[in-house]
Description:
The chain is of the alpha/beta class.
Amino acid sequence: MAGNWKMNGTSTRCVELAHAVRAASDGVAAQVIVAPPATSLAVVSGVFAGSPVGIAGQNIHWAASGAFTGEIAPGMVAEYAGFVLVGHSERRQLFGETDDDTNRKVHAAFDHGLAPIICVGETAAQRAAGATDTTVAGQLFAATDGITAVEVERIMIAYEPVWSIGTGAACDPAEAGRVAGLVRGSLEVAFGPGAGDVRILYGGSVGPANVRGYLAHEDVDGALVGGASLDPAAFGALVRAADEAA
Length: 246
Ligand code: 13P
């Protein structure tokens, strides 16, 4: 169960939220991950010291260092986190990130010991045009181009239909599961049977009331949650649902 806090929370607020997540995750079998804003990675990692809760960056640059004002190098995130979101639709839609950028970031993540959580998903227009599967497969193959069969086992894929993010228009669980199955099958064809175990998350308007529908699908291993991850009670309920499913 992964919470993407997006651009929310001063360090003080993030520390409070992290303490709540730590308490909610105590003794659960499901893997819990939080993705705080970059400015809070250090303090949040302190809260989770000695806890199995994973920490993710929300974005990285692909270069190891250099003259990239305002960017965050993979090694900077890796000081505090084991994971990094790559290719989130907000990066693609609002900041012009391309499939090629996403691929460079995936390689940079591996080079610095970070496991990438690769986000894919179609827009409403792409879905209406019947291009959901080709869009998702295209993003998936572009992002994973050139990675090894060993590396692929460390990735997670988050299927996040763009039209469902922050809208309340959650994807039908059967349809989310169908696309997750397509992702799994495509990875197996490309990388071999080991890729069949890649963890696949659904994201888009997930909350305590609908999460079980997604987790019940055999190809959906968890959720990547935005809005509801900022509410400690809601995220606690999501962690409990994931724990039941695990
Ligand atoms: P919401 O849960 O707010 O729809 O956001 C989903 C998301 O983008 C997680 O990365």
